[in-house]
Amino acid sequence: PLAPNTLKDLEKAIYKEIERIKTKGPKEQELVKVRNNLEKGLIDGLSSNSGLANQLAYFEAVAGNWEELLSLIKGIQNVTEIDVQRVAEKYLIPSNRTVAWIEKKSGGEK
Fold it and tell me: What is the pTM of this model?
């Protein structure tokens, strides 16, 4: 984080945001942006022959049917604020948390 903020300040801000999502859900504009970015990432991965082959092979091997890729894209667009809130309440809890801080050593050591 940028001074004067500390890693502890950043961690507290993250927890505060998680609690906001759990109690109020995400804002619609946030959800639209995430949906669009996820969909774009999937579609961009199909823009080359090798990307298309990799994605189709992956879905065929993992999901048992390459057409599950299309279902995933539809599923992303169907995620609601309530879905995000429900998942946050279930999984973004202290007992599931692992926190690690990486700090530079003082005194110019590497």
Answer: 0.74
